[in-house]
Amino acid sequence: QGFSNEERYFNALSTLYAIASKLAVAQGESQFVCNTDTAERIKDIIKLNYRDKDFRIEHISDMIFVSHSYICKLFKMKTGISPVKYLVKLRLQSAGELLAVKDYSVKKLCQEVGFSDELHFMKEFKKEFGVTVKQYREKIRELKSEV
User: Fold this and answer.
1) Cα–Cα distance between 108 and 127 in angstroms, integer?
2) What is the rounded CA–CA span in Å between residue 39 and residue 36?
3) Rounded distance, CA 77 to CA 96, Å?
4) CB 118 within 8 A of CB 60
5) CA distance 132 to 135
6) Residue-wise pLDDT tens digits, 68-92
7) pTM here?
8) Which of 114, 94, 118 is nearest to 106 (CA)?
9) Residue 95 burial (CB < 10 Å; 0-12/13-18/19+)?
């Protein structure tokens, strides 16, 4: 209903991979489930797309034809963190790097690193770095003036 043949094909393929994954787990085929190459591929996709505020982990499912839940389980198993946390961490690291070289407003910084909500960004920034954006910027200025 309303799906193109291509969408039906990819949905069926994704379902097939999800079934194969469950069978592999049941059979003890952990190399299929814990595929490092797939985890690295997921990282690469996130690195290529993290600046897009509309990018979601669900998009990876469409790109590599596996279910969202499989991606999350595999990624966490291989890296120790969820793909969403990895995405947020990458965005925050990029924000920190940009603050070291640019004097962006919080709004501009959010746009550059893929956050759509400034309040959420500021909360996550403080959690990651232990200081506010303003305090972080002041520390950078102090360090630059010492050199």
Assistant:
1) 20
2) 5
3) 27
4) no
5) 5
6) 999 999 999 999 999 999 999 999 9
7) 0.73
8) 118
9) buried
Q: Which residue has the tokens 């954006």?
A: 133
State the average pLDDT over residues 34-50. 86
Q: Which residues, in sequence order, are CB contacts of 118 under 8 Å at separation 6+?
A: 106, 107, 110
Q: Which amino acid is at 94?
A: S
Q: What is the DSSP string of the chain?
A: ----HHHHHHHHHHHHHHHHHHHHHHHT-HHHHT-HHHHHHHHHHHHHHTT-TT--HHHHHHHHT--HHHHHHHHHHHHSS-HHHHHHHHHHHHHHHHHHH----HHHHHHHHT-S-HHHHHHHHHHHHSS-HHHHHHHHHHHHHH-
pLDDT score of 104 more than 50 = yes
